[in-house]
Amino acid sequence: MAAPKKSAAQESGQDKGQDKVQEKGQAKTGGSIPEFTREQELVALRDMLLIRRFEEKAGQLYGMGAIGGFCHLYIGQEAIVVGMQMALKQGDQVITGYRDHGHMLACGMDAKGVMAELTGRHGGYSKGKGGSMHMFSKEKNFFGGHGIVGAQVSLGTGLAFANRYRGTDFVSLAYFGDGASNQGQVYESFNMAELWKLPVIYVIENNRYAMGTSVTRSSAQTDFSKRGISFNIPGEQVDGMDVRAVKAAGDKAVAWCRAGKGPFILEMQTYRYRGHSMSDPAKYRTREEVDKVRHDQDPIEQVRNRLLAAKMSEQDLKAIDAEVREIVNAAADFAQHDPEPAAAELWTDVYR
Ligand SMILES: Cc1ncc(C[n+]2csc(CCOP(=O)(O)OP(=O)(O)O)c2C)c(N)n1
Ligand SMILES: [Mg+2]
Hints:
The protein is α/β, with parallel strands linked by helices and 352 residues long. The chain has helices at residues 8-12, 16-21, 38-63, 78-86, 101-106, 111-118, 151-166, 184-195, 215-218, 243-258, 287-297, 299-309, 314-337, and strands at residues 93-95, 172-177, 200-206, 209-210, 213-214, 235-239, 264-269. Residues 6-21 and 23-27 have low confidence and may be disordered. Magnesium ion binds at residues 177-179, 207, 209-210.
């Protein structure tokens, strides 16, 4: 059978149709977006800035050769993990794929430990033996960090099963991408989660690309909030560039899960500013496309602008950035000077 004809947009690799869906304010977050208090705005700003500066530094260290292997940056998507974290309570679990540094920082993991893992040092979360894609923190309920696309979806469903089995009211969050959404195990997980009413929120981070493939080229159904329809799992599209919209959607989904109603799907409409990984020249999209999102929808600028409009001074905002930069610089310094793991570590933490 001949391959189906592609549209002009698909041929060019440009994601025109999706552009429209994700234009500012287009996502359906269930009506108006509740305002944040000043305190919430400040928490969101600081936490998003920490991720942004951390990722910029990781990119620099990678360029200097201090980080080996793969490194997938989260720049542009910060509002998702920060907004969702604001909707959680202590004891809820988080699991994600390989674009994971932001999730760890949002969970409260230490920037030094994360950065030192990237540089393969003993003080890293996996003693320098895991790297960017393999970090965990039992204390902060962060379950990785998974390089196999989609694997975290079934594991996250398992975490929800454990919550149910133990009779707790904790909720698990399984983050995955638009590309991962087309994986078979996602739907096996959806079925079991709804069948057993498991408290899991499937957070689909639709950043419009899976490596170099745009969603319109790879997905028959590009409204990812509908992916649970045949399992009766409710879903919502959310403006993932607005931290307030993310928090509001998160609150709703968390309440649904905690009430024992089963899983919930949140499609976060977002964008990654950098290539898929550090080695991706991102030739499948135009510079203008990236610049437009940065200019019109940047999640950090949105909060900064609201704070400025609420009479917060430019100076006070700069002080927050300076405080964050200090944390990140200290983490980078530690990550470059901490020793590498001893050779004997090769024989520890091995599953037998
Ligand atoms: C099972 C499996 N298939 C393929 C890959 C190669 N791979 C790594 S990332 C990726 C794209 C995933 O894209 P998406 O889910 O949209 O996440 P994003 O990178 O955009 O955050 C692919 C195909 C893999 N790691 N695992
Ligand atoms: Mg993607």
